[in-house]
UniProtKB/TrEMBL annotation:
Entry protein name: Uracil-DNA glycosylase
Main EC class the enzyme belongs to: hydrolase
Localisation per UniProt entry: Cytoplasm
Active site per database record: 65
Natural source organism: Capnocytophaga felis
Record-linked HAMAP family: UDG
């Protein structure tokens, strides 16, 4: 597994790559990819960091697992490759943006357009076995991505953290609320959204309001 990560991140995370847990994680991931189909493809495992340099981070969205269907995952949480049918959670995200900001529902579910504006689209686990949700959890990825969240909290200022669902909300313990904006709501999955825990959270306008208030450019969602 090649750690293709933007140089701006290496300055903050290089010590993580040297730790025992990460070396074991690399061995595990290499074996998994050698033995069967895993997602995303190897060159996209660290796409979240490639498309959003450290100094550009304005918003962090935390997902749990990559999509495990054919050609869906592209290394950015909730994002899919161009031309791929939008999964249910992404549909609900786009519906909320439509309601919140009046932005028409987009054709492409590829969120690289967000990442290039400073949205870190971080899954807690960066790889998954095909058709087996959660199959790469508890192998070290969470330790690594928790370190990423801590680094952003400690080394950056006035970042918006969007924590959707119970799993993501637990990450608030890693974030300094005195200098960052933390927005929480239910998850955009149909199970949560249909119970009234997602729609109407207005996280996209609230994030932009905060960014504008601290002199940063808003995200073109």
């Amino acid at each position: 597994m090649e750690v293709n990560i933007h140089p701006s991140w290496k300055a903050h995370l290089s010590t993580e790559f040297e730790k025992d847990y990460f070396q074991k994680l690399v061995t595990f991931v290499k074996n998994e990819y050698a033995q069967g189909v895993c997602y995303p493809k190897g060159s996209q495992i660290f796409s979240a960091f490639e498309h959003c340099p450290f100094e550009n981070v304005k918003v962090v969205i935390i997902g749990q697992d990559p999509y495990h269907g054919v050609n869906q995952a592209n290394g950015l949480c909730f994002s899919v490759q161009d031309g791929i049918e939008h999964p249910p959670s992404l549909i609900n995200i786009f519906k909320e943006i439509e309601q919140d900001l009046g932005i028409p529902y987009p054709i492409s579910g590829n969120l690289e357009r967000w990442a290039s504006q400073g949205v870190l689209l971080l899954n807690a686990t960066l790889t998954v076995r095909a058709n087996q949700a959660g199959s790469h959890q508890n192998q070290g990825w969470e330790t690594f991505t928790d370190s990423v969240i801590r680094v952003v909290s400690e080394k950056s200022n006035q970042v918006v953290f969007l924590l959707w669902g119970g799993y993501a909300k637990k990450k608030s313990a890693l974030i300094d609320a005195s200098k960052h904006c933390i927005l929480t709501s239910g998850h955009p999955s149909p199970l949560s959204a249909n119970r009234g825990y997602w729609f109407g959270n207005k996280h996209f306008s609230k994030a932009n309001d905060f960014l504008t208030s601290v002199g940063k450019s808003p995200i073109q969602w």
